[in-house]
Amino acid sequence: MRNFIYRIQWTLRQRAAAILYSMQRPAGVNHVRNPKNMLFVLSGLLGDSVMSQPAIAAARDHWPGAQITVLGKRHNRELLKADPCIDEFYVCDADLFSLRRSAEIDGLKEWLQKSRFDAAIILLGDQYAHLLARAGIPVRAGVKGTILERCLTHVYEIGSPREWGTRERLNCLRVLGADVADRLPRLYVDA
Predict the structure, then answer these.
(1) Are 38 and 67 in contact (CB under 8 A)?
(2) % of residues, the chain, pLDDT over 70
(3) Which residue, among 17, 51, 56, 41, has the nearest Cα to 149 in the 3D structure?
(4) What integer pLDDT is reported at residue 9 of this predicted model?
(5) pTM over 0.90
(6) Are 123 and 172 in contact (CB under 8 A)?
């Protein structure tokens, strides 16, 4: 019963966040021309993170002058810390809709405000959408059909969660107007 009540309050908090921040959707933003500061949210399981890596590499190729920052959990950073496509990594291990670890969440909110990103792309971690909207990031792309979709300016399809792969995650760039070819994941090992 306790888990059921927790799940209901967690879902209700997500729905309330979606309604509150959906008003921050800017009109007329279609493409990201030359972003200087891009954020990728990659807060998920290791296998899914590996399958999402080509999107970051394709963004680096498409916008070579952009600063690319990844927001994720500690295990995501450990997996990708040697990736030359990533300039910076911010770790947030807190569950954004939990009532615990509010200091860590407040620190994340402050960092998002100060960072002044041109675009944010959610690869894994749909629960971050409302914070991206709240931070005023003008272009916010994420997966279609999530509870927090209202907080996004662009949505992309991934098909069935059981079958998606690198091709579907590259749709996050295609929806922003980037012409990117399919590619396989590449992991780097630090010294």
Answers:
(1) yes
(2) 86
(3) 17
(4) 66
(5) no
(6) yes
Closest CA to 164 of 77, 79, 75, 45: 45
For 29, counting Cβ atoms within 10 Å of its Cβ (0-12 exposed, 13-18 middle, 19+ buried), the class is middle
Residue 125: strand, helix, or coil: coil
**Percent share of the chain, pLDDT over 90:** 64
pLDDT digits (tens, 9 = 90+) for 85-100: 999 999 999 888 777 7
Kind of pairing, strands 139-143 and 154-156? parallel
Q: Which amino acid is at 150?
A: R
Alpha-carbon gap, residue 62 to 49, rounded angstroms:
20
Which pLDDT belongs to residue 6?
62
Residue of 45, 88, 82, 40 lying closest to 62 (CA atoms): 40
Nearest to 38 by CA among 90, 74, 109, 73: 90
Q: Is 185 exposed, middle or buried (0-12, 13-18, 19+ CB in 10 A)?
A: middle
Beta-strand runs (E) in 101-181: 119-124, 139-143, 154-156
